[in-house]
Amino acid sequence: MKRIKRAVVIVLDGAGAGWQQDAEKYGDVGANTLKHVVEQAHPDLPNLTDLGLMKVLGLHPADADDPVGCYGTMLEKAAGKDTTTGHWEIAGLTLKVPFPTYPDGFPPEVIEAFEYETGMGTLGNKVASGTEIINELGAEHLRTGKLIVYTSADSVFQIAAHEAVVPPMTLWDMCRTARRILKGEHNVGRVIARPFVGEVGAFVRTANRRDFSVDPTGRTMLDALKAGGWDVLGVGKIEDIFNHRGLTGSNHAAGNPACIDATLEYLRRERWKGLLFTNLVDTDMLFGHRRDVAGFAKSLEEFDQRLPEIMKLLGEDGLLIITADHGCDPSFTAHTDHTRERVPLLVWGLGCEEGVNLGERASFADISATVLEALGCNEKLDGTSFFRDIAMN
Q1: What is the pLDDT of residue 207?
Q2: 295: alpha, beta or left, given left = phi > 0 and alpha = psi -120 to 50?
Q3: Closest to 217 in 3D by CA, of 326, 100, 92
Q4: 84 and 326 in contact (C-beta within 8 Å)?
Q5: CA distance 361 to 367
Q6: 302, 257 in Cβ contact below 8 A?
Q7: pLDDT of 19-72, one tens digit each?
Q8: Strand 343-348, strand 122-127: pairing
Q9: For a 10 Å CB count at each end of the chain, is N or C smaller?
Q10: Looking at the domain covering 108-212, what would its CATH class be?
């Protein structure tokens, strides 16, 4: 069985493929991100369709051509529906104990320690939408200089500040302070800097966001491949999600167009072998949370239009995997947070069989197991490989 030289894993952030059986625990029964976007906005997705997306969503017409890609879905095994948990599981690390969440805001000992260490007062300390809380508290922040602290249904400690009041690099240092404080029982998944600009009533968040993640609690495919001498390249938020661990190169591009450009730039470099791991965040951050179905659909179209460029540069010994880390259904009315969903699994390569139905996988970690086997890395992490199901003999 022929091994590959390069694996490209692209995560369409928040692009879930239907609520899981345990979605009731999360208040997410009925969420179905991609299907609802396709049914309501009718995006033109010829390339994703060719790979099998409509088969995954149950929207494949009877008279349509069979997919050229291999397709299926994956269930999230770990508890939670956040970015870190999802990406770690994709990388072969299944979180055993979920990260803490704070539906009533952070306790006094956390806020008091943060204020003492930074010398700054705080506002908010509640669950909120990022765009809504800066509109609510932005004027008071400008007047008092206090930091806006908030959280969500995810395990996150978010700090918003106007760039004219707190420059981004200073805000990042404050996030590092929070990261040091949030240990033990308060070991949140991510501390996130949320800088913004503009006037009262017209605040806009900037691209100077940074995520400060907890260090992975076990080995991932990034660690295994780096230790084995492979290249491990991250694009977008990947370096933040894995706290820079296991990477040999990274491009912290912001926004889908820039991240796709960075992915293509890496693919044009012929000398590397190993893993290229890309996160495309716009579907989640700009459109899922903001309940913008049309924007979500347009973002999918823009990715679909550039997919042939990626496939062309993959080469004869490359493997492309497209998936997601959780759901973020822009049509869901119960809340504006992530949704507990299975995720799509689309796989293509010139050395792969066509049209293989991979079914519903028991864990996101099946991607890691497949990548490791396909590249010839013998380290065993979580998950079950499907490489033998798709590889041409």
Answers
A1: 87
A2: alpha
A3: 92
A4: no
A5: 10
A6: yes
A7: 999 999 999 999 999 999 999 999 999 999 999 999 999 998 877 889 999 999
A8: unpaired
A9: C
A10: alpha beta
Tell me the residue ranges of DSSP E strands in 108-146. Answer: 122-127
- The proportion of the chain whose per-residue pLDDT surpasses 90, expressed as a percent, equals 90
3-state per-residue secondary structure call for 84-107: HHHHHHHCCCCCCCCCCCCCCCCC
CA distances from 55 to 48, 71, 178 (A): 10, 8, 44
Q: What is the pTM of this model?
A: 0.90
Q: Give the span between the Cα atoms of 171 and 179, in whole angstroms.
A: 12
Q: For the packed helices 168-181 and 108-118, what is the interaxial angle rounded to 10 degrees?
A: 140
Residue 271 CA to chain centroid, in angstroms?
27
- Residue 373 half-sphere exposure toward CB, CA atoms < 13 A: 20
Please name the residue that has the structure tokens 């864990």: 363
Fold exhibited by the domain 6-97+214-390: Alkaline Phosphatase, subunit A (3.40.720)
User: At which residue do the structure tokens 């990626």 appear?
Assistant: 310
User: Which string of b and e fits 282-295 if b means at least 16 CB within 10 Å?
Assistant: bbbbbbbbbbbbeb
Name the residue with tokens 């320690």.
Answer: 113
In the chain, where the domains are located = 6-97+214-390, 108-212
Instruction: Please answer whether residues 388 and 336 qualify as being in contact, where contact means their C-beta atoms are separated by less than 8 angstroms.
Output: no
Angle between helices 293-314 and 256-268 (to 10 degrees): 0
